[in-house]
Amino acid sequence: MAETSKTEAKREPKGAAGPAVATLSFEAALAELEGIVQRLEAGNVPLEESIAIYERGEALKKRCEALLGEAEARVATITRDADGRPTGTAPLDPA
Amino acid sequence: MTNTAETRANAPEWSVSELSFALRRTVEDAYGHVRVRGEISGYRGPHSSGHAYFSLKDEGARLDAIIWKGTFARLKLRPEEGLEVVAIGKLTTYPGKSGYQIVIESLEFAGAGAIMAMLEERKRRLAAEGLFDPARKTLLPFLPKVIGVITSPTGAVIRDILHRLSDRFPRQVLVWPVRVQGDTSAAEVAAAIRGFNALPQGGPIPRPDVLIVARGGGSLEDLLGFSDEAVVRAAAESGIPLVSAVGHETDVTLIDFAADVRAPTPTAAAEMVVPVRADLIAAVDGLGGRLAAAPIRLLERRRGDFRALARHLPSADTLLAVPRQRLDGAGERLPRALRGNAVAHRVQFQAARARLSPSALRMRLERLAERADGLGRRLQTGLGGLVQRRGECFAALATRLSTAHATNLRAHQVQMARARERLAVLDQRAGRAVAGELRARRRRLEAVDQLLRALSYRGVLARGFALVRDAQGHAVRTAGAVAAGARLELEFADGRVGVVAGGAPAKPTPGAAAPVAPARGPEKPSQPTLFDT
Lengths: 95, 533
Hints:
The complex is a heterodimer. Chain A is α+β, with helices and mostly antiparallel strands. Chain A has one domain. Helices cover 56% and strands 14% of the residues of chain A. Chain A has a two-stranded antiparallel ribbon with strand order 1-2. In chain A, helix 2 packs antiparallel against helix 3. Chain A is rod-shaped. Chain A starts with a helix and ends with a strand. The N terminus of chain A is likely disordered. Chain B is an alpha/beta fold. Chain B folds into 5 domains: 97 residues, CATH 2.40.50.140; 140 residues, Succinyl-CoA synthetase domains (Rossmann fold), CATH 3.40.50.261; 32 residues; 67 residues; 65 residues, no CATH class. In chain B, a hairpin with a 2-residue loop joins strand 12 and strand 13. Chain B is flat and about 190 Å long. The chains are: A alpha+beta, B alpha/beta. The interface between A and B is large, with 47 and 50 residues. Strand 1 of chain A pairs parallel with strand 7 of chain B, so a sheet runs across the interface.
């Protein structure tokens, strides 16, 4: 289990060159956005490509903002059956 | 006799059982509730009956101990070999073997030192299994969507965590309520870690991206549940990254070693699992600003580059002026050059026409005809001479050939005549030689024939003897070889006669090597005569 989650975490930033922006984690989207800004600022991107990566940069920024916007604190407690197996969630009311 | 009986009556008489049970009552009354400190010795787990039997010992003594099955399940502390404990229970006796023992109702650690020693030993054992290997540690996600918290649903800990989370980055939090103290605490915490890990991705209950196992501070014994082997194993096996936050910074529990990250306090755990949202927003805004500015600057720079280059680009007129000038010049020179060329050719033509006339052509033809005549004449004379020379040559060769042929013929005739003479002489000599040889051979043959006839048995027959043969044609040499009535054949000089032997064989005649039945007749020769011949 630990192995699987580790490889998934590694794969994410590597595949960030092209995959759908909506599937990116915040960290991956932010890293790619940083890369794009640096390339544009370096100023050696061909004009055509600069337009394409600018558009992707815009999408990445929107993705980051959307992820940052999901700042709703939802707190729930796990409800369990007689055998201790989780059955669902219920609002938590920390006394 | 009576005295003795009285003496007996004075001292009351016990049965063994009575005494044993009296002792038991005494012991149980006097030690119905004792706390006794000692080291567990000879512990080998509960017996198959569920009861546990072992001893408590110190330097000087040993006390048998027993924990009944029902009590064993309720113990806060599992007995372990060598553990220093304080046992609470009552003393009782075991009449069957004249023994006494303590029936333990509860067990406690004998002070902090004992707990530390046990934890140290357990840590060493689990570390040896590799549960604490750095290679097993997983990185925490940068921004988890769902955070699973395993703690008591009531109390300061969960409130601290939620408070800190909402300060930094409000997230979805799932609390798995557990008791963080008491006998069942360890089992509940282990079940909660496994329960969160068992949640499927995308199920009705969201699977957390990170787990926090938290508890506030407490005594060493209060925190013992988080050092339980089951909890440590569950934490080490967790596929979801796990942060342990048990007690205060100075409290060390074994789950801290198996967790992916150890937080000194529950609040610190909340800080570790989420970044500060405001910082991220600022960072994204900053990047957004740079992103917007960069292409504009890029365009500006390119525009500048373009203008600079455009300035250096020469106008179309400038580029064309020189070639146009060349074209004009060439166009001007073209008709003049054409005319000049025509004049030059005309001059050449006229010079050639002057040299060309019919008289010149005729002279050339006459010269050629003369040469042809001359050559024709030389050819005729040359050919006649050649034929004559070859004819003479041939006649000479023909004469030489006929002379040589005649000479050769003569020589051959002489040679043949000589050969013929030699042949006649040789023929005569050969005839003579052959006749002489034939005569000699005939003489030798006659001599041999005479000798042969003298030696042949036929010679003997000619003198009147006969040869006897049996039916198979073998010669019969003795009378004994002839059976009565045997068929025999007699050979005389002039022919053969078949006979049958009659009567008993004749007495062998002394010296008779001759046939058995000599022929009767006047020609019968006597033996000496035979040998004399």
